[in-house]
Design goal:
The protein has 252 residues and is mainly alpha-helical. The chain has helices spanning 22-25, 31-40, 49-58, 67-76, 82-91, 100-118, 120-133, 150-161, 168-181, 190-200, 208-230, and strands at 8-11, 14-17, 20-21. The chain is globular, with a radius of gyration of 21 Å.
Amino acid sequence: MIWRTKISYVERNKVVVRGYRLDELIGRVSYGEMLYLMFNGELPPREWRRALDALLVAGCDHSIFCPSTSAARIVASGGVGLQNAIASGINAMGSYHGGAIEAAMKLFYEVKARGDEVGLEKAAEEAVSKLLAEGKRVPGFGHKIHTDDPRVKRLLEVAGECGLDRGYIKAALEVGRALEKAGRRLPMNIDGAMAAVACELGFDWRAGRAIFVLSRALGVAAHAYEEMVEGEPFKEIPLEEIRYEGPREREL
């Protein structure tokens, strides 16, 4: 079997990534720039560096509230290795936790493309109407805690300061306005903001989950480490929080 890749190769005393020697990249590019290079094949414009780093910082943590962090801490309390706890946290990320970035990116790309023909406002209204008629969520909007997520506001500000204005953030904002017109006043969440900025940066929508995982893995790792070092062993669900709804006790 022959493995093929355009990403990297290794020779004795040499590691090359996307055509660049890795030792020359070390200390000269940020982690965000390296993410862009590895996924897209080229280094981004220097003015995008802050936006890339902001994208990764924005989603890095949301306390023990979310499934990935709580999963990592519970697993860490069982006495496993740190990498096992981190992997458990990452495995808890899915369609309802982090996966919305992928769906939102796809939506914003579609709205922007349609908007070039009929205008963003109409394109957003069409997309929202279709999703609601099908009984589906509009990805990137709504949050259990935040009504005005400070992470969203700041991430979009940084994107603007970096000159990211290719229409995808505008498309995302139009989707929010279309939702409000449809009677669903749902604020943009961090998934939506990260998705809009990732679109502005030109990432493929299928890379959306990876971007979230690479961001949130930092928080997951820190929580797992804290639980391992400072937490008490064997975190359990309190018995009073468990309600049995099966058949009554019976004779065998």
